[in-house]
Write a structure and sequence with these properties.
12 strands, alpha/beta
């Protein structure tokens, strides 16, 4: 009788989803990484126009429509000074598929992938699905990724290491010094640096830097998406950029699991990238205000929290029983261990919700903290 592959048996449903299912109806959801802004109108309209004109009815090229890839190249030239070309870009079904392509194309069965712990849930699962072995690397006290810890964890079996800045679930942002070190490590150790930059535009303090800016080899694969940059999570449009030889291998995987990204989403993302960028600043300024509201509330509740410098997540150190007490009182927060063993004792809070609701949730969280102390 046919049973199940070892790969699929090694992964389970995300701990984030388990929390959602345990919550009561009408709970305040501070667990979802979903911006509460609408997709820019000009992006929506571009998709509608493409549909009406019949331009979104058929497969696009496997890599995606040329104007979208040109817009992605222009975006990275403008923001990071990268010298790319459209042939070095694949449009994907969100950043998640881009991560999947990179790992499938580069990781041999049994090889190691170094992942931040706590880190985004997909890094561990996608490594296992590729037949690799995830190796968790603990973060610093401020929840940033330590290049020295990455370098110390490299072995002869290491295929890649993952960098995520701004980071999910921590909100941490890597310094330029650290990013240069990630690039050096990729060059000197001849291992792949998989750089997840999907929260690039949501930075409150400092600037965003990419290892692709500093690497002297082609050992950096850059993943990004319209999802968080333009509040387009439901459109499922991301991309991966790398050297031509790496893109060619990732394209082999993409051809068979996806063929091409959704055509309407491609037209929408092209418009988002080339149209007015006001929404980017608007979202970042709003998330920064909400961050400050949350940090003030957590401080008044006696809960310590490293200051997030980007994305829209905070990861406070919480007392035992806090998460369950919050759930009982109608506020969803995600246990830190859902993001790795070193997340134990923390909770991830998403402040991608309106300020009024956030303040209501903070009052409840303060009561929950008092109840379990």
């Amino acid at each position: 009788m046919t049973e199940f592959s070892t790969r699929v048996e090694e992964i389970s449903i995300s701990g984030i989803r388990e929390v959602f299912e345990a919550a009561g109806e009408g709970a305040i959801n501070l667990g979802l990484g979903q911006p509460d802004f609408p997709t820019p109108p000009h992006a929506r309209e571009a998709a509608v126009e493409a549909i009406r004109a019949g331009r979104a009815d058929a497969y696009t090229s496997n890599k995606g429509i040329e104007p979208l890839r040109e817009a992605i190249v222009a975006k990275h030239e403008r923001d990071q000074g990268l010298d790319l070309d459209p042939e070095r870009v694949i449009a994907t079904a969100g950043g998640s598929e881009a991560l999947h392509l990179a790992l499938e194309a580069h990781v041999e069965p049994g090889e190691e992938v170094l992942i931040p712990d706590p880190g985004f849930v997909s890094y561990d699962a996608l490594t296992r699905l590729a037949g690799g072995t995830p190796v968790p690397v603990p973060l610093r006290e401020d929840l940033t990724i330590d290049p020295a810890a990455i370098e110390a964890a490299i072995t002869d079996d290491t295929a890649a290491f993952v960098v995520n800045s701004p980071a999910n679930p921590t909100g941490a942002v890597a310094s330029e010094t650290d990013v240069k070190e990630f690039a050096r490590i990729a060059d000197e150790h001849d291992v792949l640096c998989l750089s997840d930059e999907v929260y690039e535009y949501t930075i409150f303090d400092g600037e965003h830097y990419s290892p692709a800016q500093y690497a002297e080899s082609d050992n950096v694969v850059l993943v990004n998406a319209a999802s968080k940059l333009y509040s387009m999570t439901g459109w499922r449009l991301g991309w991966v950029t790398a050297s031509k030889r790496r893109i060619e291998r990732m394209l082999r995987v993409h051809q068979y699991i996806q063929a091409c990204a959704s055509a309407p989403a491609q037209f929408a993302a092209e418009a988002a990238l080339t149209g007015p960028q006001d929404v980017v600043d608007e979202m970042s300024e709003s998330f920064e205000r909400r961050r400050d509201v949350l940090l003030e509330g957590l401080s008044e509740a006696g809960i310590d929290c490293p200051t997030p410098r980007g994305a829209f997540y905070a990861m406070p150190n919480v007392p035992d029983g806090f998460i369950e007490e919050c759930l009982d009182r109608g506020v969803i927060v995600v246990p830190g261990e859902a993001f790795g063993a070193h997340g134990a004792g923390y909770a991830r809070i998403s402040y991608a919700t309106d300020e009024e609701t956030l303040r209501e949730a903070i009052d409840i969280m303060e009561k929950a903290a008092d109840a379990v102390r």
